[in-house]
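Hi F.,

I've been meaning to write this up properly since the lab meeting, where we talked about keeping a consistent format for the predictions we share between groups. The idea is simple: the sequence comes first, exactly as it goes in, then the C-alpha cells exactly as they come out, then a line or two of notes. No screenshots and no reformatting. I'm using this chain as the first example so we have something concrete to point to.
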Amino acid sequence: MRNQIVVKTVPMKSEKYGDYEIQLVKPAAATVTLCTFTSNADIAMYHAKDLGRNSFHFYNEAMADNAEKNIRLVSDLRQAIDKEQFELHYQPKINLADGSIIGAEALIRWRHPENGMIYPLDFISLAESSGIIFDMGEWVIQQACKDCQSWIDMGLGDLTVAVNVSAIQFKRGNISSVIHNALSSSHMAASRLELELTESTLIDDSEKFRAVLSNLRSYGAMFSIDDFGIGYSSMIYLKRLPFDHLKIDREFIRNIHRDPDSRGVVEAIMAVSKQYGLQVTAEGVENREALEILKELGCHFYQGAHFSMPVPCDRFTKLLAA
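Output, unedited:
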C-alpha cells in the first residue's frame, strides 16, 4: 500500500499569543527524505486549509502535480504585466429604460503564450496568495480609467467603468493612492469610476476599512455591492457603508421568468434598494423574458449575454459607435 501523508490543521485561540495552527503528520516511508516529507506535508496542509477550519487532507501525487502547475503559473504571472499579456474585456452595462450603453464592467483576461486565454477563476486566487494581486489590480484600475476616458474623448457617451476590487487590495492600505494616481494620469472624473466589492471584502468592516471607503468617496468614486443576495449578511452593510449601487447575482436572474422564488427575491431586493436610494443592476440577463420582468420590477440596468458577453476594448468601442 502506498504511504500517504496527512495534515490536520487545528485553529487555536489565545489572548496572549494569538492564532496558531498545529500540523499533525503521519510518517511516510523510510525512503522519503525529510525535505520531501515536509514539502508534501505543506502541500497537504494548504489543501486542508482550503477545506475550511478543523479539516484534514491526505497527500497524494495529484496534489504535487497541481502544486507544480501553480508554481509555474505564479512564475508566469509575475512576468505577465511586463510582457503585456493581460488585457481587459468589457461587458456593457445597459439602461433598461432606453436600451442605451451607459458604461461597462472591466474584466481581466490573461493571454498566456502557451496556454491561450486564461480566465480570472483560474488565476486570481494565485495572484492573491502570491501578492501579485497588488500590481495586477493597479494595472486593471489604470487601464480601465484610461480606456473609459478615451471613449469619452471620442464622444461615444457619458460613460462609467466598474472595476472589481479584492479584499486583499483594501487590506494593504494603499488602494486610495492607487485610484488617485489612476484618475490623475487618465484625467478621468472620479464619479465615472465604480468600485465593485463582494461580501468577502465587506466582511472586514473595520474602522480602517471604513476610513478607506470614506476617503475614496471624498474623491467622488462610487461603490456597488457585487453578487448581492447570495451573502448571508449583505443587508447589514447597506446601513453601515456608503453604497450607490447593488448588483443582483445572476443566480436569481437566470430563471426569473419561470421561477417564482427567484422573482420573489428580486422583488425584495428592489424594495430594499428603493428604501436606501440605490440603483440596481441585474447580472446574467440572457433572454427577453427576463428583461421584461426586470423592467416591470423597476430594475435600472442590466448586463448579460442578451446584449453582449464581455468583449475586447476595440470591439466595445465599436458597440459604442454603432
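Notes:
Residues 6-59 form one domain.
The first helix runs from residue 34 to 51.

If this format works for you, I'll send the rest the same way.

G.
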